[in-house]
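Worked Example 4.2. Read the sequence first, then its structure tokens.
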Amino acid sequence: MHCLPSNVDRFIRTAKKYLYLEKLTSTILNDMVNAVYVHAPDKSSGQRVQDVEISYNYVGILPVSLLYDLQNGETA
């Protein structure tokens, strides 16, 4: 999905509605998430690792590094 400025604005407006969640509901998930992709587990390192990607409405899959930076108050 190509991420256009209007789509980013729509995503931000939607996300702002849920800044202070106490409970994640199906309504919120339907409003925010387009799809969840759960990949096959990998045990090659000796530990079980399983990747999960979330495709958000309006913006698609966001890089984990971006989400981590946003969570820690860092911006690009």
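Now turn to a second chain, presented in exactly the same format:
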Amino acid sequence: MDYSETNRLSRLTAILIQLQTKRIVTASELANKFDISKRTIYRDIKALEQSGVPVLTEEGKGYTLMEGYKIPLVMFTEKQANALILTEQLVLQSKDASFVKDYSEAIDKINSKI
């Protein structure tokens, strides 16, 4: 698997997490988050649908997952997840933007499970 395929797989996974975390996600919001075009988001959503993910399009609003659909749980105990969430304030004070971004993405994964 080359870098572009790995990068796309990571992005598809991140899009799926965003869909599970929020009620409605727009193509513009996703395009801005991943610094790609809306056209690429449309292709990514289609790829998710073709792989069996029940993505619903709400015309004029955005994308959502079919009610009740969940991706597999992240393997944290409730106490571990709570400990990570509580450290967020410390991390957000960091001057390292990359570290804050990585932590925020990890928290999105956790929040999508709660």
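Notes for the reader: The helical segments are 3-21, 27-34, 38-50, 78-86, 88-92, 97-111. The chain has a mean pLDDT of 83.
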